[in-house]
Design a protein that fits this description.
Shape: rod-shaped
Strand content: under 5%
Radius of gyration: 32 Å
Structural class: mainly alpha
Order of helices and strands: HH
Number of strands: 0
Helix content: 55-70%
Low-confidence stretches: none
Length: 68
């Protein structure tokens, strides 16, 4: 009679749970806010150019405002 040793290997599978922490929510809120502020800045710049009459006039008016 042969003595046989059986080796069993059990794999342990850990389930990763996806959870959104407060840090990820904060990063998302800051990201959305920065996109909105960037869009507002671009729209304001375009509105200023339209009101002034173009980019050259906008820069001219800027220098006039700075030098007083």
């Amino acid at each position: 009679m042969k003595n046989a040793t059986a080796i069993t290997r059990d794999k342990s599978v850990a389930l990763d749970t996806v959870s959104i922490g407060n840090g990820q929510i904060g990063v998302g809120v800051i990201g959305v806010a920065s996109v909105l502020i960037g869009c507002w800045a671009v729209v304001s710049l375009i509105a200023g150019m339209v009101t002034s009459g173009g980019p050259a006039e906008l820069l001219s008016n800027l220098f006039k405002a700075i030098t007083g």
